[in-house]
Structures are given as C-alpha cells and as structure tokens.
C-alpha cells in the first residue's frame, strides 16, 4: 500500500520542475486555434459515435477525427514530452509510469464492468458502442482507436492544457474532454472520459508534457476495446 501511495504521488501529485514559457502572442494564437479545433472535433466525434455498427463510414469518420485533433494541436504551438520522477529521485521520460497508470485504470474499469453488466440500462448502450469492433474489422478499429488516443492527448493535454491558466488547467481540460462525448448518449462513456481526463491531466501537470498521458490513454482505450466486451457479456 505504501508503494502504491508513493507511486500515486510521483505520477499525479508532485510536479517535476520544468518551464515552458510562451509569449502573449503565442498564447493568443494557441487559444484561437484550440477553440476552433474544439468546435470541429466535438462535432465530428458526435457524428462518428452515432454511425451504425458495420457502416464503413465509421472508419473514415474516426480517421478524420484523429486528423482534426492532431492538426489543431500542432497548429496551436509546440508540444513537449515531459519528465517523470524515478524511484531513485531523478527524472526520466514518463513512458513506464504512463503504462502502469493505464493498466491500473483498465483493472478498475473491468471490475466496474462486472457491476454494469447487471444493469441493462447501462450495459446496452456500452455494448452498442463496442459493436463497431464486432461488426467490422477489429484490427482496423483497434488501429483507429490507437490513433485517436494519441491525437486526443496531443490536443487536450498538449494544446488545450497549455492554452489555459495553470491553476485551472486540470479541471478545465477534464471538463472539456468529458463534454466531447456527451452527444454519444452513453453514461458509462461519460464516466470513463471524466476519469481518464482527470488522470491524464494530473499526469500532464506533474510531467509537463504529453508522453505519459499518451501512453496511459493508449493502454486504457485498447484495454477497454479488447477486454470490456467479454466482461459485460460474462457478467450479464
């Protein structure tokens, strides 16, 4: 338990000292690009999530979404990979840390999935959303899921986080990220987005970059895609 507490502090509480200063002109540009990208990206995401499983249009829509987030992120300004605390007290790239957080989140949501499986009103919309994988090409859906995981982190924990005053960046990026999935009408997706948004925002605050959040998001999203469907079916 003590080891877990120390890991939580190192990964989500104690920031690694870093300075990424931007001029007022750079900040204004970032905010304008971020705002325009959010409107476009949220619209494309709502459209993509409402496409019927098995419709090839879903692949094009999700690829377009990844392009929107990625282009908007890099157009807004520079990205940083960040640094994480090590057990020895030094710093390193936060890849392993992000992997561990992603696995922990998958484990928590798998346990939660067993409970959700007992409630049809919650289970049915989640299975309908995951039907894109069973009705279409699972490898292709997995690839698009990975691409969108990276793209979302570039935008939300990269561009958006940098565009918001530091004292409000964690909660503001979490709320904005959660709002993008409201149009899907899936309660569990809202919970997942809020949890993932909060964890990755805290990582961004601690590490000063996007690498940790990207790895966590990749592990979580692919884990939910591959592990959650059988859990919901077995638990029901």
Structure description:
With 236 residues, the chain is mostly helical. The protein has one domain. The chain has helices spanning 2-12, 24-49, 57-76, 95-116, 120-135, 138-163, 169-179, 187-207, 211-235; strands spanning 84-85, 91-92. Strand 1 (84-85) and strand 2 (91-92) form a beta hairpin. Helix 4 runs antiparallel to helix 8. The longest helix has 26 residues, at 24-49. The two termini are 32 Å apart.
Provide the descriptors you would attach to this structure in a database record.
236 residues, mainly alpha, two-stranded antiparallel ribbon, 9 helices, 2 strands, 75% helix, 2% strand, globular
**What is the typical, i.e. mean, pLDDT?**
88
* Count of discrete domains: 1
Distance between the termini: 32 Å
Q: What is the strand content?
A: under 5%
Q: What series of H and E elements makes up the topology?
A: HHHEEHHHHHH
Strands in their spatial order, largest beta sheet? 1-2
- Biggest sheet overview: 2 strands, antiparallel
Q: Which class of secondary structure composition applies to the elements?
A: mainly alpha
Radius of gyration: 18 Å
Helix content: over 70%
Overall body shape: globular
Q: Give me the count of strands.
A: 2
Number of helices: 9
Low-confidence stretches: none
